[in-house]
Each structure stands twice: as structure tokens, then as C-alpha cells.
Design brief:
Blueprint: H1 7-23, H2 29-43, H3 45-60, H4 67-79, H5 83-91, H6 96-100, H7 107-117, H8 122-130, H9 142-156, E1 162-163, H10 164-179, E2 184-189, H11 191-194, E3 199-200, E4 202-209, H12 212-220, E5 225-231, E6 235-240, E7 245-251, H13 256-264, H14 267-279, E8 282-285, E9 288-295, E10 298-306, H15 310-316, H16 332-337, E11 352-356, H17 367-376, E12 381-384, H18 399-415, E13 420-428, H19 439-442, E14 447-451, H20 460-471, E15 478-479, H21 497-506, E16 510-514, H22 524-533, E17 537-540, H23 552-561, H24 575-587
Parallel strand pairs: 4-7, 11-12, 12-13, 13-14, 14-15, 15-16, 16-17
Antiparallel strand pairs: 1-3, 2-4, 5-6, 6-7, 8-9, 9-10
The protein binds one DNA strand of 29 nucleotides through helix 2, helix 4, helix 7, helix 9 and strand 5.
Length: about 600
DNA sequence: GCCGTTTTCGGCCCGACTGTTTTCAGTCG
């Protein structure tokens, strides 16, 4: 058994290797270590699993990890440290990772700060700033010292990633304002928001205009802006009052496609795409795809090929256009080259919502008001799934109350036109895996969702056993927000995903994507695994308030990031089709 | 140090902005 298997710390160590090589001017290694660090960060616990199963050989099969780095990871997992890293720390005892968090502070500056002022960490930096010693370093001045102080301030005023659900409307409001300007043809959101990432580090906007300067002037004066980092002819960057940055690029209309492609990212997707372009004799930048000529060993763009739309660019590279949501720099490029991209579920494909609440428990609106809002959002049915009695503090329903609710739903269904309510529940899974309501009561319902709201700290083995027992109950149709995480607030429960997927498949239980902004659960990677396993998905809002129906597009974004198609998602079916599915399940 | 529908050797993404310069280095996305 190893001593230290913390993938997060490992990612930081690899990052520090990258920076150290960069400081020393070593070519190519910085990027190799950077990629390895990102890879480990993204894989998380999977790195440890891979190492446990297949050792160094397994590690080498991971992206960005070859012989040398695999050996270092192996050493770290076995002994808890890496000799070469310890030596590096001895000769350069600097908290590289901590300092690098500061905007504008890169490897060369960290090197110089230590060489001239013996700055080892953020505290040393603060002292040096206070005593105005930094401006005395060669090639530094009062302005760059100020800039560094600002960067430090920004970091300390917590610049954590924000929830997509919170930022998306803000970005769209900014776009709407700029769009209305004279001379502006296009104005759109790019970056991680366009990719529908669950959290967002900054807002990337792109505009095309005959009068770029006017757009820039308007941008830095938007009401959401609190200060301006940079303002140029084609690019500006500002700080927003709600605590994150927004960038705007303004380009000529004729290169819109290239710019949109470029600033949609993600970074790794773009690096791979530019490498692919190079291998086919092109070079790609934000102004288009160019044929390449070599002058004195240097690549120079020569003739413009295409730039009007993203599709043109991908097509010239011999591939289909991957939807933004799956541009992560992994197998989407290969799939696009082989013309094997899936037809992702469209944003308007949902017909119903399988998880909603009402004033019967902790919702804020009556069943009827919720139904009317759902219908206004284009849905034709929804399941009413209030909580059960284990959640006593919100008056969860017992069997008797549930029957009473069913009678109300019967009455409402007679009254509603073009909309149907399904009788359902969000039934608690108790600690031992039994359900909070009697099977006889569950059998009366159209739709039984189950979920966990207690005992979230069970061991992986216990938690998995608990869930498997619940899913094996023949009354259960769906497992709601399976990992129980709350982004930025609560870690996911420990569970063996492979076993849970296998059980869901065996017992024909659907897995839910809960669209609430801080849940986003299942998450993208889990969705992809579920889709691969052929398990049905539902995309629900878990609406506790009429406004929550608007979050459905977040859940659809997650599903698309998980390569889900319309056929994979249960509530894209019409009500008769859904009923047929449920009847078939009951017969099994 | 990693990687392979031109390669197991010889490649390795690209441009804007800032600050301190006087033609460029550093950082970022």
C-alpha cells in the first residue's frame, strides 16, 4: 500500500516541475509537465485506480504521461515523495504553486523575485510590495509593481469559479446590451459558458463591428463592470462587480467563425486542432485557417483559406464540427475525423419533467401553479415528486398524505388542458437501503424516484451496498441526483460508480441529471459512462420554485457534455411513449 | 518529456496587450 495518493497534490507537484523548467529556459519540458499536471487534475482518483491496477504501465496509457513522469508518479504513490522534487525544492525553496495563483505572475517573474529579493511565498511578496522593493528589480517599475499588487488583491478577494447557472444570465445580459449598438453585427458568448461547463472562471464575449472602438468604450462602461484591466483595439478585459473577469474581442465580421472557434476552446482542444492543422500544412489562428510557408525554419501564415464559419474550418481539416459542449481536447477530435460524432440531444427536446416539488413539502408554489409554469416552458407532462417522511423538518409525506396528494392530482388532471401530472415521489433511501415508504404505497404511483438525503459519509462499500439495495426494489424507476454533491459546498458521496451503473442497467432504473445549478448531478463524465452502458437518463429541474424550470437548459448542457442523444433521455418521449416504457418495466 | 492517418525520431500553437524598452520579454487565454 502506498503512502500518499493525493492526486490533487500530485497535480500541483507536476505543475511546479513545469514552472521550474520554464524558469530555467528548458525547452518543451514545461508543456509536457503542464499537460501531465492537467491530466492528473482532470482524472483525479482515476490516476490512483489505474496505478493500483496496472502500475507504471497503466500510468503510461494516460494522456500526457510517458515513461519519465509515470516513474515519478509511481515513486510518489509508493513513498509519498519524489526525490527530484525534493532536490528542486532545496535549490529553489519557493512556493511556486501559491505564487503562480496571482494573475500576471509567471515563471520568469517568480524566478526574479526570489533571485533579487528572496521572495519565497505570498507573505514574502506582500512584505516586498509594502516596502516598494519590487520596482528596484531590473526591468520592473512602479507600474508593474502596482499591477502585481492588484493581482494579489484580486486573488485574496476570492476569485473562485462561479456556477454556470449564476453567470449565464449575466453574460447574456451583457451580450444583449452590446448587440443593440449600431454597427454591431454579431455578439455572442464563447469560452466555458458556450461549452456549458458547470462552473465558469471568466466570461468570454466576441463581437464583430465596423466601429470596434465604440464597442470597447461601451463594454468597459457596462453596469456590471467594476474596474478595467486592459483596453485595446481588439481586446479588452474587465473585472465585474460579482467577482469575476470578462473579456471582449472585437474582430471584423468576415473572420467571425475563426474567432468564435478560437475563443470557444477549450484550450486543449485548440492546441490539438492547431497541431492537426500544422500536420496538414495549415496554420490556424483567430483570424482563420491559412496555408503554411516556411521561412528560415519559421512557420509563417501565407494564404487565407477559410474563416467565415466554424464549420468551414473543421471541414477543411477533414472533420465534422464537434458541438462546443464536447470540445475538451480528448476523443472528440478522433470522432470528428472519422465522422462518428453523435447527434447530441437538442436544447428544445424535453417534453416533460420527472422531478418537481410543491407546497405539499418544501416547494414554494402549488401543484397547479407549478404545472402551469411547466406548460409555459413547453412541457406536456410532469411528475409531482415531493419528499417523504424521513425529511420530517420539511413535513415529508407519509403513505396517507401521499394518497391524499394523489387525489388532488386526479382532480387537477381533469382540469388541466394539454398537460398531464404524473403521481410520483422523491422517496428517501434510508441508511440500510430500504425505502421510506411501503411498497404498497409506491405501487400506486406512476413514477418512483429515490434519493439520498442523509448518512452521506458512509464508506464507499457501505454506501454502494445501500444504493444497490434500493435500486433492486422493483418499484423504483429513477435514482435522483445520484452523487449528492453540491458544487463548492458538499463533496459527492463515496460510491462505486461501475457497480451502481451495473445495477441501474440490471434493474432498469434511470439515472437523473438534476439541473439545479449547484447540483448538476450526474455530472458530464458520469453521463458519458451511463450512456455508454445503455442506461436511461432523465433530465429534471428538481424545481422547488416556478423560476427553476429555466434551469433545464443547464441539465441539457450536462447531457450534451456527456455525449447523450435524444434517444438516451427518457423525458424527451411523448407521454404515451413514456407510459409504454413504464408499463414494460413493470411487467419485467 | 511526450507523441505518432506523413514520424519510434524529430517535431512541439499563436497573437494581443502591458510595461519597460527603443525592438522586446513576459503573461495570458
Amino acid at each position: 500500500m502506498g503512502k500518499n495518493q493525493n492526486p490533487e497534490e500530485l497535480a500541483k507537484i507536476l505543475f511546479e516541475f513545469s514552472y521550474r523548467h520554464e524558469m530555467l529556459g528548458v525547452p518543451f519540458k514545461p508543456r509536457a509537465y503542464q499537460l501531465a499536471s492537467e491530466s492528473v487534475g482532470a482524472l483525479g482518483g482515476e490516476v490512483v485506480e489505474t496505478w493500483r491496477k496496472d502500475g507504471i504501465k497503466g500510468l503510461k496509457s494516460l494522456p500526457g504521461i510517458g515513461q519519465s513522469i509515470a516513474e515519478k508518479i509511481d515513486e510518489y504513490f509508493r513513498t509519498g515523495k519524489i526525490k527530484e522534487y525534493a532536490q528542486m525544492k532545496k535549490s529553489f525553496p519557493v512556493d511556486i504553486w501559491g505564487l503562480s495563483r496571482i494573475e500576471g505572475l509567471g515563471p520568469k517573474h517568480i524566478r526574479d523575485l526570489y533571485a533579487h529579493l528572496k521572495v519565497k511565498d505570498v507573505d514574502d511578496l506582500k512584505k516586498a510590495l509594502k516596502e516598494q522593493r519590487i520596482r528596484k528589480i531590473p526591468r520592473w517599475g512602479a507600474k508593474s509593481e502596482d499591477k502585481l499588487a492588484r493581482g494579489l488583491g484580486l486573488m485574496e478577494s476570492s476569485s473562485e469559479r462561479k456556477l454556470l447557472g449564476e453567470i449565464l444570465p449575466v453574460a447574456e445580459a451583457m451580450v444583449e446590451k452590446l448587440k443593440r449598438m449600431k454597427g454591431v453585427k454579431h455578439c455572442v458568448v464563447a469560452g466555458s459558458i458556450r461549452r456549458m461547463q458547470e462552473t465558469v472562471g471568466d466570461i468570454d464575449l466576441i463581437a464583430t463591428s465596423d466601429d470596434p472602438k465604440a464597442v470597447m468604450d461601451a463594454f468597459v462602461k457596462l453596469p456590471q463592470v467594476s474596474s478595467v484591466h486592459e483596453k485595446g483595439a481588439t481586446r479588452s478585459s474587465v473585472r465585474l462587480a460579482l467577482g469575476l473577469d470578462a473579456d471582449l474581442r472585437v474582430v471584423p465580421d468576415k473572420v467571425f467563425g475563426a474567432t468564435l472557434q478560437y475563443f470557444t476552446g477549450d484550450k486543449r482542444h485548440n492546441v490539438l486542432l492547431r497541431e492537426l492543422a500544422l500536420s496538414k500544412g495549415f496554420t490556424l489562428n483567430e483570424y482563420g485557417l491559412f496555408t503554411l510557408k516556411r521561412v528560415k525554419g519559421k512557420h509563417l501564415p501565407s494564404k487565407l483559406v477559410v474563416c467565415k464559419t466554424e464549420e468551414e474550418i473543421y471541414s477543411k481539416l477533414g472533420m465534422d464540427t464537434p458541438p462546443p459542449e464536447i470540445r475538451v481536447g480528448a476523443d472528440e477530435i478522433e470522432a470528428a475525423l472519422k465522422h462518428r460524432l453523435p447527434a447530441l440531444l437538442p436544447y428544445d427536446a424535453l417534453r416533460g419533467d420527472m422531478h418537481t416539488h410543491s407546497t405539499w413539502t418544501d416547494g414554494t408554489a402549488s401543484i397547479e401553479d407549478m404545472a402551469k409554469t411547466a406548460q409555459a416552458h413547453g412541457l406536456t407532462y410532469q411528475a409531482v415528486t415531493d419528499h417523504t417522511k424521513a425529511l420530517a423538518f420539511i413535513h415529508g409525506l407519509d403513505e396517507k398524505a401521499l394518497l391524499k396528494q394523489c387525489r388532488e392530482i386526479d382532480a387537477l388532471n381533469k382540469k388541466l388542458r394539454g398537460f398531464t401530472l404524473l403521481k410520483g415521489t422523491e422517496c428517501d433511501i434510508l441508511q440500510d437501503g430500504t425505502l421510506d415508504l411501503a411498497d404498497s404505497a409506491l405501487a400506486e404511483l406512476d413514477w418512483v424516484g429515490v434519493s439520498i438525503h442523509s448518512h452521506m459519509r458512509l464508506s464507499r462499500a457501505e454506501q454502494t451496498k445501500r444504493i444497490l439495495k434500493a435500486l433492486a426494489n422493483p418499484q423504483v424507476d429513477c435514482f435522483f441526483h445520484p452523487t449528492c454533491r453540491l458544487i463548492g459546498q458538499r463533496e459527492p458521496i463515496e460510491l462505486d460508480l461501475d457497480e451502481v451503473l451495473a445495477a441501474a442497467k440490471k434493474f432498469r432504473v434511470a439515472l437523473e441529471i438534476d439541473s439545479l445549478p449547484d447540483r448538476s448531478d450526474l455530472r458530464d463524465a458520469h453521463v458519458r459512462a451511463a450512456v455508454r452502458a445503455g442506461i436511461a437518463i432523465t433530465i429534471d429541474t428538481d424545481a422547488h420554485h416556478p423560476d427553476h424550470y429555466a434551469f433545464a437548459r443547464l441539465g441539457i448542457g450536462v447531457a450534451r457534455r456527456g455525449w447523450a442523444t435524444k434517444a438516451d433521455v427518457l423525458n424527451t418521449r411523448s407521454l404515451p411513449q413514456l407510459k409504454k416504457y413504464l408499463e414494460k418495466k413493470k411487467r419485467k
